[in-house]
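queue> holo job accepted (zinc ion)
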Amino acid sequence: MRQNHLLPCLLVLLTVACAPAPQSELHIVPQPVSVTTGEGFVSLAGQSVWVDQAFGGEAVAAVEDFAARLSKASGRKSRMVSELSQAGICFVLDETLAPEAYTLVAGADGVEVGASAMRGVLYGLATLQQMLPEAVFTGTRQRCVSWSVPCVQISDFPRFGYRGLHLDPCRHFWEAREVKRYIDVMALYKLNTFHFHLNDDQGWRVEIKSRPLLTEIGSVRSGSCIKAEYGNSDGIPHGGFYTQEQLREIVDYAASKGIDIIPEIDLPGHMLAALAAYPELGCTGGPYEVWTRWGVSDDVLCIGKEETFAFLEDVLGELCEIFPSKYIHIGGDECPKDRWKECPLCQARIRQLGLKDTRHGTKEQYLQNYVTARLQSFLEGKGRSIIGWDEILEGELAPGATVMSWRGTEGGVEASARGFDVIMAPYTYLYLDYYQSDKRELEPYAIGGYLPVEKVYSYEPFDELDEFQQSHILGVQANLWTEYIATPEHLEYMLLPRLLALSEIQWCPRDGRDFERFKESLPRQFAILDAMDYTYSQDVFGIYGMPSK
Ligand code: ACM
Ligand code: ZN
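queue> job finished
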């Protein structure tokens, strides 16, 4: 067994060639829970690597990939070895740790990462890589740098079990490779849940084999509106969708990085792309068009028709075949009730169900509750749980639903008081489509708002909540809608570095956050993002606008 982790790293000092020794400030994001720095450094160049096979194939593959990149970048081979005693870098099983926790000890004889499960291994690895020269992320040979890391003892685990990020591929479509890059940067900062918003008024993005017109017709719009001039389309067709095969591949890719994907079918509103394909599912029967403007459409699914439920069950049934996630997101936001008020079939359904206006809601609101409850029981029959935007809370909501609070924190405060699980994603702190700087004239056009990285960082999900409510907060998520974001560079620019601030809300203990310390870590993180060729904003340092590449 390896021992004596924190012996002074004398040996190593000899191996440092031509670069100055690394500074002992680690600048890791998210900041680990506990870091104790020792004396000296240990060089990892050429160190052999061992991983306990009990972690499973994906963890082993991640470690092997790291060893291969370290070898290439350092120019000295880090072999995978089958004997723990031969290893200078090892990943050992420690069943006393929680599944997402890890320990990392760097001492004279190398580095030992302890974990009890795959995610702990991945997070230990993520931390270790942030301690190394950034070339390790790409495996690009980097001469004349030190491959030493400071002797240190880290003990780390997340504050929240749900650490989410959302992406909208409907307003603008993102190719599978771009989605994977998005997942890569999530993994770098220890997020574990990707919320994939797969349909909206402006495009249907998931292949549904039993309903082929959804993608044949619903995946393409004839143009996009120019900035906020709603009457003004650019006339350039925009579209795209993911095949089921591509989505399965993305699911596997994300899983290998410790990330679950929660798919969303937004219903019963935000359905114009589906209505363009199947107009018989609307109250008026159409015709409808995949929307070329942004906003909230009055045209929604007709709830008076049984065909609507047959359609939704087909869609959600196929979705469950693609995505193994515990949760399926059924949207529920921004569903105007105008059509239902006028529709004889919707009104007949309201009468049949005996729905009435009350002090708490209109009968049309209760009709939306009926949709939610019916799909909840359909999905529970398949072993899944639902998440909905906070509108699902209006009126009645069956136990077992999880509420995603986006219209501020109020929905989350109320839902948790009523005993529902909650994911906090308030637009006031976590909508990444807002401007990052107040120098709007220097920024790419955005939907509005002003959300600098400092404001994101200041969000505290437990403010306003008592202990009972806190126990219902599963975690925190940021959302990235893409009405005005049309290129991968712009998408990344809006995401970064606000994603890093999000990661500290999600990971660090409440008293473990400090904006000044976080800000000091950004130059180091920017070097990593540069190596991985991500585009990011430097507004926080007074450098405004998107860099041209
Ligand atoms: C939303 O931003 N409409 C959930
Ligand atoms: Zn109707």
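queue> The two ends are 50 Å apart (CA to CA).
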